[in-house]
Amino acid sequence: MLLSIIVLLGLFFILVMIDVPIAVSIALASLATLLLSMPFDPAVITMAQRLAGGLDSFTLLAIPFFVISGYLMGRGGIAKRLIEAAKAIVGTLPGGLALVNTLSCMLFGSISGSAVAATSAIGTFMIPTMEKEGYDKNFSTAVTVTGSILGLLIPPSNVLIIYAVAAGSVSIAALFMAGYLPGILAGLALMIVAAGYAKKEGYPRSARIPLKIAFQKILQAGPSILMILIVVGGIIAGIFTATEASAIAVVYALVLSLMYREIKIGDLPEILLKSVETTAMVLLLIGVSTGMAWVLSYENIPQAISNGLLMISENPIIILLLINVILLFVGAFLDITPAILIFTPIFLPVVMELGMSPLHFGIMLVLNLSIGLCTPPVGSVLFVGCAVAGTTIQKLVRPLIMLYAALIVALLLVTFIPFLSEGLPRAAGLI
Predict the structure, then answer these.
(1) Using CA atoms, how far apart are residues 239 and 231, in angstroms rounded to an integer?
(2) Nearest-angstrom CA–CA distance, 327 and 385
(3) FRET partner for 262 with CA separation of 20 to 30 A, picked from 146, 178, 196, 353?
(4) 356 and 254 part of one domain
(5) What letter does residue 77 receive in the DSSP assignment?
């Protein structure tokens, strides 16, 4: 048992540290662990069967469709309309542009389903604009990267679908509803900290927009925000499944982008090619991670880890804090998709034994690992933000720390207050 854990996790992290692709690292570590208990040929055949079986899911069809809709939204002129709407809502408050940045990133991230896309689309416009108005560039970049990750909690979200597949018994509709309050809570935490910092530094407020013009700006962004209502509302009402909703999202995003005249028919082949590349990477990760999850179960590793954690303490607060610390560390080195697929089967049995529901754990897990996307040394969103702003990670550390602290506070509230995750799904009759 101990040898299996050492080989599986040890070999995986060694391969990742020497820059072996994550999917290959997962497959090789899983195969090496399996070879401890069976001959080579059966081990290889078993891994191949598990990889193929992991992709044999109707639910996973939603991922390529949401990826396509995200790319369409990213290129379709959605970002600037959301920014104008955010200005109309919060632009005149202290640190107005910082709040606009955060809100815009949250909205665009939720619509596109991609934190990287939100960082690139919103950051390209907002970071130079904030710098022109007297904001520090590094502070503006830190606001962008931390705000962008919150879109992963607010549906439609690919990572919530991936968690539903990994957990095996969680309703996607319930997960979608569960993400709203934690996502908004984390966004408010970021805004409060950003506003306080902006006031301390004496950053200017935006000029007040006449009510009529503000209303027009919000209306112009309405069709973009409406996609969330159509997708989530249709799933909750039972009109269509999450997979069918993803196809509707593609059609809606395409019509909206063409209506805004930001995308031409000739741009579609490039968008589809990028979507295929992204989908292929995600599905390969899901396949090999499903194989790893089977190896974990076959070797009884989750039970061993569960027993080990319970030996440390039987206090649920201590165990949940320990799990969060482990996930925060993992998230700093591992992208969110493989992390969800690997650690869901490890920690879900532990938290269920403590009385936490799979729905509550899923939201905690996604928020925790989302923080890793803007955490050095491997945070993908952090690197994109630095590239967009033309700055370095070292210069972002100071403004990032206070925003990071706000996210940690939100994470702790989500961890220990089940209502934040379960309140809306229960009110909607989904649990």
Answers:
(1) 10
(2) 23
(3) 146
(4) yes
(5) T
Range of the domain at 354: 57-427
Sole residue written with tokens 């050492």? 6
104 CB-near residues (< 8 Å, 6+ apart): 79, 82, 83, 86, 122, 126, 147
Query: Do residues 15 and 164 both lie within one domain?
Result: no
> Looking at residue 76, what is its pLDDT?
66
Largest CA distance in the chain: 74
How many domains would you assign to the chain?
Answer: 2
Instruction: Report the predicted TM-score, pTM, of the whole model to 2 decimal places.
Output: 0.83
d(CA 345, CA 166) in angstroms, rounded, equals 7
My answer on whether 38 and 61 are in the same domain is no
Q: Which residue has the higher pLDDT, 402 or 211?
A: 402
- Say yes or no: 38 and 65 in one domain: no
Mean pLDDT within 254-279 = 83
pLDDT at 323 over 90: yes
Same domain? 170 vs 225: yes
Q: What is the DSSP string of 198-234?
A: HHHHTPPPPPPPPHHHHHHHHHHHHHHHHHHHHHHHH
The region, left, alpha or beta by phi > 0 then psi within -120 to 50, assigned to residue 154 is beta
Which residue would you say has higher pLDDT here, 227 or 421?
A: 421
Same domain for 156 and 14, yes or no, is no
> Is residue 216 situated within a structural domain?
yes
